[in-house]
Amino acid sequence: MSTAGKVLVAMILLVTVAWLFLGAGVAQLNRNGNAALAKLQADLAKAEEGLHQAQVDLVKIKDDTTVFQENMDTQVAVIRARVTDVEASGSRLKAVLNNMQHQLETVQSTVEQAQHDLDVRKQERADETKSLADARAQVRSLRDRDAELTDRLKKLREEFQMTYAKNVESLGTSSR
Known about the structure:
Blueprint: H1 3-85, H2 90-174
Helix pairs in contact: 1-2
């Protein structure tokens, strides 16, 4: 076998090995990108479900608070009527009123906590949305990089084919 043939065989083997490594790298990048995207989508769905549940809980708390406040208003009116009718039970009614006020403060603090939790959920959702957008941008950049590498591989193959054809022609002319 001639030296040109040996060089050609060696070049073919090197290009084939390089081609296999490039193909394996692209496949690995695709697997990693798809797994990350699936995880982010699952996290986003979970965050949206939590947000929805927090909104439902907040509406329920507001409804309960309204009913409680209406009940409390009714009870305060009854207490005031009794105070005017019976002054002897005034101290007892003051204790009941203080208890009601404490319950109102408890409900208000619960509503404030629920509002804070809602704000936290909204921030988490915004963060997840931003994270998803970043992941999608990264996937797009990886796809662009894949396209560049594929184009480069195509050009290298074409150059290889041209060089191969020239070498075959050179061998054909040199052997004559």
